[in-house]
Amino acid sequence: MKNINITRKITQGMYVLTTQNGGCIVDAVSQISAGKNPFIAVSVMKKNYTNELLRANHKFALSILGTDVNPEMIKTFGFQSARDINKFEKIETTQVEGVNVINDSLGYMVCEIVDWIDNDTHTLFIGKIVEADVFAEKEAMSYGYYQEHKDELLKVTTAKGKTAWVCSMCGYIYYGDEVPEDYKCPICGVGKEYFRKKSE
Ligand SMILES: Cc1cc2nc3c(=O)[nH]c(=O)nc-3n(C[C@H](O)[C@H](O)[C@H](O)COP(=O)(O)O)c2cc1C
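A: This is the predicted complex of the input protein with flavin mononucleotide.
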């Protein structure tokens, strides 16, 4: 493999994937057919609690984030697990077809899961859109926009007096003199080479 980083140039959006009792931020979403009930594919890490919930619920919603979204949305759904917190406690949602959709979004698609494919780390869930609506005609947040603006969006602050390494993919902070050679980010799974030393 000459340079796998070319995959980062694939244009993707930013979504909150919700299902009963949980959900998470995803960017790995594709529309795979058109027509009255298009099929949508979404790739979810096996270690995410959302993966477990999707297998049980067979239904999900994708709410499309705008560039003006409250960054707390990304912090709540992208950096924490519904194993530990109730993600819906501080986020306003509306029930559609039995799934919570996010009010602070440009709109949503509710899908019934028709199939899934596993590899060693991820599951590709394929859903058929059964309901959809537009809330606002505003600019959607792309994954590229998120990458460019994540420092200001997430306002990463590190503890004083400690050496901090910030994951350039997701903002996770590792404290220690050096990031261990075989270290993998517990949030997004990237290796040591993605961590940047944060100067105080
Ligand atoms: C910008 C961004 C993009 C992400 N994209 C995905 C994705 O496409 N698929 C995925 O499974 N997780 C993705 N994640 C990670 C999950 O949102 C994150 O691990 C979440 O905390 C899982 O929560 P859960 O355990 O409640 O499912 C992304 C996170 C961020 C911040």
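Residues 42 and 184 are 23 Å apart (CA to CA). Residues 22, 24-28, 43-45, 48-50, 74, 77-83, 146, 170, 187-188 surround flavin mononucleotide (CB under 6 Å).
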